[in-house]
């Protein structure tokens, strides 16, 4: 049995004869041999306000009374140094600067210009952790200096003090006696919350001297690591699992009687670093883990357990005032962890798993619950801090301060802003451009990811990607219009938006349409829709919200029918004849998962057919319950709830919410949010499965039936997020089976099924299926004819074809009976947008319309409801292309289109009369263009397009201040782009001014882009001035000027750019 010890060590300075106090705890008993005393080198002299003061926040840095900066920039250089890690962790230079700032001067380290002395102290364990992660990059002199400032002397070792010594008037003895029971209680409390054991060896050192900016610090070491006798090194670089955790407290922490709440916060914070180090399988991974996962969770845990924050101001100021993406934060990331906790996703329950698996980035974000819809729907809105709007519009946590985050303000006409990935923003839509310009004003809000909307009164819209709001006049469509009698949702300006970037970032636009235009259902021509990259592990966002004039509020459904024919939640049809157990649908929140077992179809003589499979069992996670349904030689399939057989006659309530009830010979499972799963028998041969998710699950479901985006015919995504634009398989070796399907196989660790004794999921996995891919044409004509008679008048044609195929392959007319039941309880309303591996008699088809060359165009084509036309464009040179619609808005109302790049990346769904814009890919090959009309539309439409080579994207290095005289710069070519780059520092305020005269056409737009290339200001016309922007990070920023049309120009322009 491993002995768990907690040691208390008092460390004197080198020149001081200080006593050493060590307590070693094993099962509550004091024991252990004597050892030489430890001592520490002399510390650097303390900065102002250090010795004897209570520790304060992670960045009680410079002035706290300044106006919150626009755009989310760090308020001062200290915040930039201590609370920003652009790549998740500081590089070696920034780590050395942070250490020198908190502990004292280090050889060869120059602090950033203008950095004030530490006005207060911060927990510094994360800075030490990162230094150990960079240890091999430090010079010998730097290693020695770090050891002198941070660590005890090489001869020190824990030892037990005899009881008689407690009578000595040594303040460290008194402190040790006081701290030991508190330490035991605190580590036990954390172990309980995390569900992990107390680290095997925790040593707490009481040091004599203050450090300029460090309230306390920690280091976690492996066996064999430690300071060598000559003091030249700290880490022997052997790595491996944690062996001990050393926590260092200066006098301001251990003097002054019992720990107050602020100092308990600091000690909790540092002890959490011990749990982190012992959780990671290797200290190499721990030392290079991102700050938001290490320092952010320690800051969260310290505040949550102590019931207060530390310091004044607390880190709430830096979470609220200094807006930045989650992954670049350190201390201030604690606000996001508190947001998770408030929405019901307890960080304490997942942190141990995140640390022990070494998760980071998007994987850690999802594991923590960050991708859950309730989290993302309320993160951005919480930053508005308007509690009168409801709980989702307020920040929650321990001792939250009154700071109000900066808000992005946009006008109703032509507004646009961007939220970076893993960031959140609150925004206000004002009447800018609306007053007097539109008699009956309808403000339209569109976003590439779902947003939350509240008006100035009581109206709220949740999880929408398009909303239309009547803000003046009577907004009822008049008789005789296309939308006669339709009332547009009334709202009062200003509108407030909560926007969360998620894994892809969000682009939000506002515009105004008058009532006549709206009632004609003519989408306004807007700037090109941005490309929406696939998000690993989740789905792209929904399309227009139902209250914004969509066809109806009927739920989407995904289904696996027959042997098996799948229809995704977005209406994509495909066939999947693999054998094994697969995930049909899973939710990021963890409350929903549906798995299906597919086994070979048996022919009339009982022989297995390896070219066709059928669903024989379904396993479901519904809240906290596990439910399985399997075929049985009985009137109803076999039902088990948490492993126990049940035959209910009435609905059965499930633990954690939800019900199971008998339904049309099978079972109906209902989630608390209204999501419904029907599992219906196909005689005694198999099961039909229909899942109807609540609309609130848009953007959260993935699997064989996913993603659920609200966009008709959305591309399939495998578990990694890779897209499969055309998944129809003609051979078993095609990607549908070898990559896409394989990624969704159930494993022993993820299976929800019940198994007979001695069996597991491995016994059902069939790598020999399908042996071939069949179509209706491959079956004998007389067999098809008999099956056709059995299936009768089933509709739509796609379902009838599936029935004919299943009866023909199996020889079992029970399939036809099963489809008739489906016809009654789950009508098939999906658009036939997905390619099918068998011909369909449905008049609504997907047709290849031919190839188009770059520089070419197509004449107008007419598309019927449910029809899709596709074109290909070869681009062997991997050039940038500009995609332009040639359709008239009035004629193309029902038409939408999308562009798929050679690498499989799709654009968003684009309204028929709107340009796709400039799209660049590094992959040569064939592009695809799809134009389509939803099957539910009452009318078709006409559409045309052309594609041209885009103008150049030029990088134009420059410095600020920069003056480009009017007309001196020229853009030539469709979508041509100039990037005027310059070096920027976090905190700089950059102001852009259009040149007098402004000769460029209105097609040219401009804005300011961050070092990652994302335009962070509103894209305005080149003749208009963007708002001043405070830079949020150091790096190469740019002024971006774009020709947003397919017209070559040339366009001349000019501007000035200054910084303050």
Automatic annotation (TrEMBL):
Where does the record place Low complexity bias? 29-42, 51-70
Bias kind Polar residues: ranges: 830-848
Recorded hits in InterPro entries, A to Z, give:
Epithelial_Barrier/Signaling, VWF_type-D
Q: Where is the composition biased (Pro residues)?
A: 525-543
Which domain of life, per UniProt?
A: Bacteria
Q: Which PROSITE patterns match?
A: VWFD
Q: Where is this region: Disordered?
A: 29-81, 521-564, 826-851
Segments forming domain VWFD: 556-752
Mind telling me which residue stretches traverse the membrane in this protein?
Answer: none
Protein name per the record: VWFD domain-containing protein
User: Top-down, what is the taxonomic lineage of the species of origin?
Assistant: Bacteria, Bacillati, Actinomycetota, Actinomycetes, Nakamurellales
